Amino acid sequence: TQDDYTKGKSNRSITQLIDSPQVAVLARENADNIEQDAVDFLWSRFGTSVHNMFEKAAESQDSIISEQRMFADVLGWTISGAVDLQELTDHGRIVSDYKVTSVWSVIFAKQEWHNQLNCYAWLIRKSQNTNVKQLRIIAIIRDWQR
């Protein structure tokens, strides 16, 4: 969830880079006035639990890197990102991002998911000097709403 989230010692995270600047400014300026719907909070906690479960399951796998935060410098700025899952193969990494979401987000593919994965691929190439073979979303479908 957002309260558990940290961008590490960076100027911007991948998540911040792909988000709308206007939304970010409005959220920062109105932080004291923003109310969160209890249902959204519940789904957010559910998503965090699913991420934690997958992270624990990956711990025993030698060919998997789970929840690795990476950093890259660009024109004096430090960019960071935490990749949910990286599978190490002979031909490069397979990068996966978990999404706990509604079926509608899968049916009507979200552009920001593609943007996020492509930014992660760039970050891995830049910080780890390794090839990225494949990008994928692992969607955990929670419902048919929103």
Question: Please, could you describe this protein's structure?
Answer:
- The chain has 146 residues and is α/β, with parallel strands linked by helices.
- The chain has one domain: Lambda Exonuclease, Chain A, CATH 3.90.320.
- Helix content is 40%, strand content 34%.
- Strands 1, 2, 3, 4 and 5 form a five-stranded mixed beta sheet that branches.
- A hairpin with a 2-residue loop joins strand 2 and strand 3 (77-89).
- The protein is globular, with a radius of gyration of 16 Å.
- The two termini are 18 Å apart.
- The mean pLDDT is 90.
Main sheet summary? 5 strands, mixed
- Which ranges are low-confidence, i.e. pLDDT below 50, for 5 or more consecutive residues? none
Going by helix content, strand content and strand pairing, the class is alpha/beta
Mean pLDDT: 90
Which CATH architecture is right?
Answer: Alpha-Beta Complex
Overall shape: it is globular
Helical content stands at 25-40%
Mind telling me the CATH class? Answer: Alpha Beta
How many separate domains make up the residues?
A: 1
